[in-house]
Design brief:
The structure holds 3 protein chains of 3 kinds. Chain A is an alpha/beta fold. Chain A contains 28 helices and 10 strands. Chain A folds into 4 domains: about 120 residues, no CATH class; about 120 residues, no CATH class; about 50 residues; about 190 residues, Rossmann fold, CATH 3.40.50. About 35% of the residues of chain A have low confidence. Chain B has one domain: Rossmann fold (3-Layer(aba) Sandwich), CATH 3.40.50. The chains are: A alpha/beta, B alpha/beta, C mainly alpha.
Chain lengths: ~600, ~250, ~200
C-alpha cells in the first residue's frame, strides 16, 4: 500500500490518484523502472542489527529459512540506506512515509539517478563510520556463512540431534551415541571405552567459543560438532570409518544428493523405497506419537534402540531409530570391528596349502585317466536296460521312414563336442541308413565348424549347415514360419511342422529351454528329441515327464546304450573307460573329503580334551 | 488345434494371475515395499561388500552371464542389472569403479548404458570410461576367458556372478576363492547352481537371483515381485497337490 | 520424455508379441516383421559391443597399459578370423577346420580345468562349509549319482536293482521341476515388470 502525501491515507500501490482526497499520486512518485522492482516494494524495512539479533536468537535454521535469510541478507548487506537506520531513531524509521523509503532504496541502487530527494540518504551513508560498517558487514557475512554451513551439515546428518541431551553437551556425535545405544556393552569394551570422545569434540568447538558469539553458540555447536567429528581418528583412533560413518547413517537419497537430485522422476521411482524413508527418518521423532496413535508405530516404523531401560524410564523420541538406520548402524559397527583386518574372507574358512593338494589331485586324476586310456582296452559294453527317455527316443527313430525329413540342430560348444559327437554319431548314422533326409541347423556360430567334425565322425556325407540368427527370437520365428518365407529363416529350412523329427544336440540348459518353450507349443510333442551332455539330464526329465519331449539321451552312457539299441557301434575313439575312471576318481575324492573332515573334527576334539 | 487353444487360455490365465498378484503386491506394500520381505542372505552380503569396496578403495567385478549370440536378453540375463545399477551408483566417485562383463552383445550394451547413466546422474560424465561395461566374449567359453583375468585383477574387492551362468563358471569362482575374494553368485542354470554350491560362493538359489533389486532395497518393483512370486508358488503347490489327488482318485486322467 | 519412450516401446512390443501369440493368424504377418526387427537390433547390439571391446583394447595398446600384450593377441586373432571369413567364406571347409583346430583345444582345456576344479571343490566342500544338511545331502546325492553314472550297477541286470535305480534317477526330476517352476514364475514376473515399466533394463 502507498500513503497519499496529501491526506496520509492508504492507497493501492498501482493507484495514480488518491481514492480519499482525489489528489494525483502519479506525478510525484513515478520513478523509471520502479514499477518492475517488486522485490524492493515488498521488502520489509528491517535493520541489519535487527536481522542479526533475530538470527542470534533463532533456533537452528532450517533449509528454507537459510535460503530466505540468505537472499534477504544479501539485499541488506548492500543497503546502506537501511544501515543508516542504526543512527536513526526507531520512531522516525517507522514514521517515514513509504514513498520516501522507496526513493531512498532506488537511489541506493542507482547512484547516477539520484536526485535531490536522495541526497539526504547518501549523506547519511557518508556520515557512517567506515570501520563500523566493515565490522558489521564482516560479522553478518560470517553469520550467514555459518548458518549456511550448519544447515548443510544438518542436512547430511538426518537423524536430528537431541538439542538438550547430555551427550550432546559433551560433544559426542549423534551417530556415535546411537550406535552406542544399539550395543551398550560396547561402551565398556575395547572399541569405545578407552576413547575419550569428549575431549576432541570440545577442542573442536573451542574456536567457536573464542569468537564470542554466545547467542546461538550452543545450538550451532551442537550441529557442527556432529559433523566436524566425522574424522573418527580423533574419536575412535581410526581413520577410515569417518566418511563411511556419515554415509552409513544418512539416508540413501541424501548420500547421492549431487547426482540424484538432478535425476528425473522415473529414477526416483526405483528408489522410492529409500525416498520414502527420508522424510520418515527426519520426522520420526515428531511423528512417533502420532504413528503410535494410529497403530502404525508397532509395525516397524520405528524401532527402539535397545531393550527397555532397567530404570523403566521411557525412551525419548530422539532415542528411536528407524529400522534402516539401525541396520546401517549395525553395518557401521561391523565395519569398525573389521577395520584393519583386510578384506573379509569368503563366508567360509580358507584352507591353507590348497595349491599343493590341487597339484597332487590333478596329477593323480591325469595319471589315472592316462593309464586307463593307454592300458585298458575298450571292451564291448554289457547289455544294459535302456532308460525310459532313451527308449522313447529310439521308438521315434524307429518310426522314421526313407525320405522323412529330420532337422538336426547343433547347439553345443567346442569343449563338449567330443561328448556330443559320441552320443550323436551313431544316431546320425542310423538316420542316414534309414534314408532320412537330414538337414543341419545351428544357432551358434561355433556350430558351423563343429557340424563338419560331427559329420566326419558319423561318417555321413557332408552337408551344408544353416545358421539361424537371433537365438530364441530366431527359434520363435522359425516355429511361427508357417509359409516358409520368413527373412530370418535361412534358405532351405522349411516350416518346422514339416519335419518328422527335430533332433537337438545340446550342452546347455538355456538352449534346451529355448526350443521347448519357444518352438514346443507349435510342434507336436513327438517331434522334439534331444541328445544332450550328461549334466542336463536332471533338467530334461521334467520336460520328458510332462510330455514336451519325444525322448532324450543324456551323457555318454545313455548314448552308448542308445547306439546298441539301434544296432550301431559306438565311436571307436570314445573314451568311455576314461569317463568311468574319471567318475571313480571323483567318487574317491568325495569320500576322501568326508573322511578328512571327520579326521579334522576328531583331531580338534582331541586337542580340546587335554585342555579341559 | 484345440490343445493349442487350451494352452493359450492356460497361459493367458497364468499371466493374468501373475499380473494381478503383482498389482496387489505393489498396492499393499506401496508405503513400505521392503518391510517383512524375504531377502536372500547372499545379496545382503553383497550390500556389505559394496560398502567395503568403497571403504578400501577397491573394485567390484560383476559377470552378467552369457546369452545366445545376437539374441535378446532373457529374464535371467537381466538378473545382474539391478546389482550393477546399485554398484555403479555407489562407485561413481570411488577410487576403483565397478567393472561389468557380459557374455552377450545386447547385455554388454545394456550394462554400459546403465553405468554411463549413473555417471551422468552424478554429473561426472568425464569420469566414465567404456571399459566399465565390456563384452567379455560372444560365446560361453570366450566369456569365461574374458572374465578370468578380471577376477584375477589385483585391486578386486569382490566378485559377483549374477545372471545366466554356465557350470564352467566354477573356474572364476575357484579363482576368486584362491584370491580370498568374496563371491556372490546367482544363476538360473541348474548345473551351474549345483557346481557353485561346492565353492565358497554365497549363492542365490532358484529365482532369488531374479530379484536382486528387492534384497538390495533398490527396486520396489522387485520387492513386489518377490511377494507375488511367493503367492504364486503357494498356488502352484496347491495346484500340484490338487492334480495329484485328482489323478489318484481317477477323476483326472 | 526421454525416459518414457523406451518404456512405451518395450511395453508395446511385449503386449504385441503376447497378443500375436494368443490371437495367432490375424497378427502373424506383423509378428514376423517385429521378430525380424528384434533380431536385427540384437545383432546390431552385438556389433556395437564388439566395436567397444576392440576400441578398448586398442586404447590399451596405444597407452601401453599393463597386459597390453593380451590386447594385441585379441585384436590380431579377431582380425585374422574376420578377414579369413570375409576372404574365404564361412562355408570354406579349410577355414572351418582351421578355426576348429584352434578353438577345440582351447575350450577343451578350459573344460578339463573345470573338471579338476570341481574335483578339488568336492574334496573341500565339507571342510569349507562344514557339516550341514545341505552339504550332507549334496555329498550323498553326488556319490549316489556318480555310482549310477558308472553304469556298473545297471550292467548287473538285476530287475529289482534296475527298478530301484530308475526310481533314483527320477528323484532329481522333483527338485528340478520345483526349481523350474520357481524360475518360470520369476521370469514371468520379471517380464511383466518390464512390460509395466517397473523394471527398466535399459535405464540407468
Amino acid at each position: 500500500m502507498i500513503l497519499c502525501p496529501h491526506c496520509g491515507k492508504e492507497n493501492l500501490p498501482q493507484a495514480t490518484r488518491c481514492v480519499h482526497c482525489g489528489e494525483d499520486l502519479e506525478e510525484l512518485f513515478r520513478i523509471e523502472g520502479m514499477e518492475d522492482n517488486s522485490a524492493l516494494q515488498e521488502e520489509p524495512d528491517i535493520s541489519v542489527a535487527d536481522l542479526l539479533e533475530s538470527f542470534r536468537n533463532d533456533s537452528i535454521p532450517k533449509d528454507e529459512e537459510t535460503g530466505s535469510a540468505d537472499s534477504t541478507g544479501q539485499a541488506y548487506v548492500s543497503d546502506s540506506g537501511a544501515e543508516s537506520n542504526a543512527e536513526m531513531p526507531a520512531e522516525e524509521e517507522e514514521q517515514a512515509p513509504e514513498w520516501l523509503a522507496r526513493i531512498r532504496k532506488r537511489a541506493q541502487q542507482e547512484e547516477d539517478a539520484a536526485g535531490e530527494l536522495t541526497r539526504k540518504g547518501n549523506s547519511l551513508d557518508a556520515a557512517r563510520s567506515e570501520d563500523h560498517r566493515g565490522r558489521v558487514d564482516e560479522e553478518f557475512a560470517n553469520w550467514i556463512g555459518r548458518i549456511r554451513e550448519n544447515a548443510r551439515r544438518e542436512n547430511l546428518l538426518m537423524p536430528k540431534p537431541a538439542i538438550n541431551s547430555a551427550d550432546s553437551d559433551e560433544g559426542v556425535p549423534e551417530w556415535l551415541r546411537k550406535v552406542r545405544e544399539l550395543q551398550p556393552e560396547a561402551e565398556d569394551g575395547e572399541q569405545f571405552a578407552e576413547e575419550p570422545a569428549e575431549e576432541p569434540a570440545v577442542e573442536e568447538v573451542e574456536p567457536e567459543e573464542e569468537q564470542g558469539e554466545a547467542a546461538a553458540q550452543d545450538q550451532a555447536q551442537e550441529t557442527e560438532s556432529v559433523v566436524e567429528q566425522t574424522s573418527p581418528e580423533e574419536i575412535l583412533g581410526e581413520t577410515e570409518p569417518a566418511a563411511e560413518a556419515v554415509s552409513e547413517l544418512e539416508p540413501e537419497p541424501e548420500a547421492e544428493s549431487a547426482g540424484e537430485k538432478a535425476q528425473p522422476a522415473d529414477e526416483e521411482d526405483s528408489d522410492s523405497g529409500d525416498a520414502e524413508e527420508l522424510p520418515e527418518s527426519a520426522a520420526a521423532p515428531q511423528f512417533a506419537p502420532v504413528l503410535e496413535e494410529l497403530g502404525l508405530a508397532a509395525d516397524g516404523a520405528a524401532l527402539e534402540l535397545d531393550e527397555k531401560p532397567a530404570s523403566s524410564e521411557e525412551l525419548s523420541a530422539d532415542l528411536l531409530l528407524l529400522r534402516r538406520q539401525k541396520e546401517n548402524a549395525q553395518i557401521l559397527m561391523n565395519l569398525i570391528g573389521e577395520e584393519g583386518r583386510g578384506l573379509p574372507p569368503a563366508k567360509t574358512q580358507r584352507v591353507s596349502g590348497r595349491g599343493l593338494y590341487r597339484l597332487i589331485l590333478g596329477a593323480f586324476l591325469l595319471l589315472v585317466l592316462a593309464a586307463v586310456l593307454v592300458f585298458v582296452p575298450e571292451a564291448k559294453p554289457k547289455q544294459i536296460e535302456n532308460p525310459a527317455p532313451a527308449v522313447a527316443l529310439k521308438d521315434v527313430l524307429d518310426r522314421l521312414a526313407s525320405g522323412d525329413k529330420v532337422l538336426v540342430v547343433l547347439e553345443y560348444q567346442a569343449a563338449t563336442s567330443p561328448e556330443l559327437e559320441q552320443i550323436a554319431a551313431p544316431v546320425l548314422r542310423e538316420l542316414e541308413t534309414r534314408g532320412a533326409e537330414l538337414q543341419f541347423l545351428t544357432t551358434h556360430p561355433n556350430g558351423l565348424w563343429l557340424a563338419d567334425a560331427l559329420m566326419r565322425a558319423a561318417e555321413i556325407p557332408t552337408r551344408e549347415t544353416a545358421f539361424l540368427a537371433g537365438g530364441r527370437l530366431g527359434v520363435l520365428a522359425a516355429a511361427l514360419n508357417s509359409e516358409g518365407n520368413s527373412a530370418v529363416i535361412p534358405a532351405g529350412i522349411e516350416e518346422l511342422q514339416k519335419y518328422e523329427l527335430i533332433l537337438l544336440l545340446e550342452d546347455s540348459q538355456t538352449d534346451i529351454q529355448n526350443w521347448i518353450e519357444q518352438a514346443g507349443p507349435w510342434l507336436s510333442a513327438s517331434k522334439l528329441g534331444v541328445l544332450a551332455s550328461s549334466q542336463n539330464e536332471a533338467l530334461l526329465l521334467p520336460y520328458y515327464d510332462a510330455g514336451q519331449l519325444a525322448g532324450f539321451a543324456a551323457g555318454t552312457l545313455q548314448g552308448r546304450v542308445l547306439a546298441q539299441a539301434l544296432d550301431q557301434a559306438p565311436l571307436t575313439s570314445a573314451p568311455s573307460r576314461a569317463f568311468q575312471a574319471g567318475l571313480l576318481v571323483m567318487i574317491a575324492v568325495i569320500l576322501l573329503g568326508i573322511l578328512s573332515k571327520a579326521e579334522a573334527d576328531s583331531s580338534a576334539r582331541h586337542a580340546k580334551e587335554p585342555e579341559a | 488345434m484345440n490343445e493349442m487353444i487350451t494352452l493359450d487360455l492356460l497361459a493367458l490365465a497364468i499371466v493374468s494371475l501373475a499380473l494381478l498378484s503383482l498389482a496387489i503386491a505393489l498396492l499393499t506394500s506401496r508405503k513400505h515395499p521392503y518391510r517383512n520381505l524375504r531377502k536372500n542372505e547372499a545379496l545382503l552380503d553383497a550390500e556389505k561388500l559394496m560398502h567395503e569396496a568403497a571403504e578400501k578403495g577397491l573394485r567390484l567385478t560383476i559377470g552378467l552371464g552369457v546369452n545366445q549370440v545376437s539374441s535378446a536378453p532373457a529374464p535371467a540375463n537381466l538378473a545382474g542389472l539391478p546389482v550393477l545399477r546399485l554398484m555403479s551408483r555407489r562407485s561413481v566417485f570411488n577410487d576403483q569403479p565397478a567393472q561389468a562383463l557380459a557374455g552377450d552383445g545386447a547385455l554388454a550394451a545394456l550394462g554400459q548404458l546403465i553405468v554411463r547413466g549413473k555417471y551422468q546422474n552424478a554429473l561426472a560424465t568425464e569420469l566414465f570410461k567404456p571399459d566399465f561395461g565390456l563384452l567379455a566374449g560372444a560365446t560361453p567359453y570366450a566369456y569365461l576367458a574374458g572374465l578370468l583375468p578380471e577376477v584375477n585383477y589385483r585391486a578386486n574387492a569382490g566378485v559377483f556372478l549374477i545372471g545366466s551362468q554356465r557350470p564352467e563358471t566354477i573356474l572364476a569362482a575357484s579363482l576368486a576363492e584362491q584370491k580370498d575374494l568374496p563371491l556372490v553368485a546367482g544363476t538360473d542354470d541348474l548345473s551351474a547352481q549345483a557346481v557353485l554350491l561346492a565353492t565358497n560362493a554365497r549363492l542365490c538359489l532358484g529365482e532369488d537371483a531374479l530379484n536382486a533389486g528387492a534384497a538390495l532395497e533398490s527396486d520396489p518393483g522387485a520387492a513386489a515381485s518377490v511377494r507375488a512370486q511367493d503367492w504364486l508358488r503357494v498356488l502352484a503347490v496347491l495346484g500340484l497337490l490338487a492334480g495329484a489327488v485328482l489323478k489318484l482318485l481317477g477323476v483326472w486322467q | 520424455m526421454k525416459k518414457t519412450i523406451p518404456i512405451l516401446v518395450a511395453a508395446a512390443a511385449a503386449l504385441f508379441i503376447l497378443a500375436a501369440l494368443i490371437l495367432g493368424e490375424p497378427l502373424a504377418g506383423w509378428l514376423e516383421i517385429v521378430l525380424n526387427w528384434a533380431v536385427i537390433v540384437a545383432s546390431a547390439a552385438l556389433l556395437v559391443a564388439i566395436a567397444t571391446l576392440i576400441l578398448t583394447h586398442l586404447r590399451n595398446i596405444v597407452r601401453g597399459k599393463r597386459g597390453f600384450i593380451f590386447s594385441i593377441i585379441l585384436i590380431s586373432t579377431f582380425l585374422v578370423s574376420f578377414i579369413g571369413a570375409l576372404v574365404l567364406g564361412m562355408d570354406n571347409s579349410a577355414y572351418l577346420r582351421w578355426v576348429a583346430a584352434i578353438q577345440l583345444p582351447l575350450e577343451t582345456s578350459l573344460l578339463g580345468l573345470s573338471a579338476l576344479v570341481m574335483t578339488a571343490a568336492a574334496l573341500q566342500i565339507f571342510r569349507s562349509r562344514g557339516w550341514s544338511l545341505l552339504t550332507l545331502t549334496f555329498g550323498i546325492s553326488a556319490l549316489v549319482f556318480l555310482v549310477i553314472s558308472l553304469g556298473l550297477l545297471q550292467a548287473l541286470n538285476i530287475p529289482v536293482l534296475t527298478t530301484f535305480i530308475n526310481f533314483l534317477q527320477r528323484l532329481p526330476m522333483i527338485g528340478a521341476r520345483g526349481l523350474l517352476i520357481g524360475i518360470g514364475i520369476g521370469a514371468l514376473l520379471m517380464g511383466l515388470r518390464v512390460v509395466l515399466g517397473l523394471e527398466r533394463p535399459w535405464g540407468e
